[in-house]
Specification:
228 residues, alpha/beta, Rossmann fold, 30% helix, binds S-adenosylmethionine, SAM-dependent_MTases_sf, Methyltransferase
Length: 228
């Protein structure tokens, strides 16, 4: 492992190490011997590429995004449909180096996280990264739907551990208080994740030195049986 990652991540069998930046999740996946991943909210797959550069022994990565314009989504990621087609083409280019000859190591899934969840069996995903809608309702739904899909010892993580007020302070271009159904909830990602971690009694970790304060959160699933 590179000396950049000064901590021996393999020593964290049950707890999670503090990570500076989200790209180190790829190092963690590699160190833990994880194999199957899903990113929800992919855009240009720039982060997917960064993760896969570190996660050398991954066997399958699913990339899930509708790549289409949405209503009640005041987010810099909400583009018109022509723009989304270009973004999707860029995403395909970005992960092409990690594809295999059979073209089944990287799988693009075009659609919404809530309607595609039933594609995945429970306990079948070792790593899930949630970076789709950033409102409280969307994030709560995504993590509730995908937590059962995470394997024992697997990682559930996501981007932007922030409340709507914090985002508004950092940039005026987004309104993460607005849910898809038009309701308002100031908690956004931060409250959705906190409530989930409380309810499930899981250790919640947050990257501590991201550029621009858009930290990632991450948690590890432990089960009474199975791989951990
Ligand atoms: C912030 S971007 C993702 C950035 C990417 N994860 C990265 O770090 O490079 C958010 C993406 O989520 C997608 N998205 C929004 N709602 C979604 C949903 N319900 N299911 C899946 N993807 C969604 C948007 O189309 C957009 O491409």
């Amino acid at each position: 492992m590179s000396s950049r990652y000064f901590m021996d991540l393999t020593s964290f069998k049950h707890t999670l190490p503090p990570l500076q930046e989200r790209v180190e999740l790829g190092v963690l996946c590699e160190a833990l011997g994880l194999k199957v991943g899903l990113e929800i909210g992919v855009q240009r797959a720039e982060f997917t590429r960064e993760i896969l550069e570190k996660w050398k022994s991954f066997e399958k990565m699913y990339l899930l995004d509708p790549w289409e314009a949405q209503t009640n989504y005041v987010d810099i990621a909400n583009k018109n449909n022509d723009e989304h087609e270009k973004i999707l083409r860029q995403a395909k280019k970005n992960v092409a180096p990690f594809q295999n000859a059979a073209s089944d190591k990287i799988e693009f899934i075009r659609g919404y996280s809530n309607t595609k969840a039933n594609m995945f069996d429970d306990l079948s995903l070792d790593y899930v990264y949630v970076d789709a809608r950033h409102d409280y309702c969307g994030v709560s739904e995504d993590i509730s739907l995908y937590w059962p899909k995470v394997s024992c010892g697997g990682i559930l993580a996501g981007h932007d551990y922030l409340s709507a007020d914090e985002v508004n302070f950092l940039t005026k271009k987004q309104n993460w208080a607005l849910c898809g159904n038009g309701t308002i909830h100031l908690g956004a990602v931060r409250t959705a994740v906190n409530e989930f971690a409380d309810r499930h009694k899981v250790q919640l970790m947050v990257t501590y030195r991201e550029r621009y304060h858009f930290n990632s959160w991450y948690m590890r699933k432990t089960c009474n049986t199975g791989r951990q």
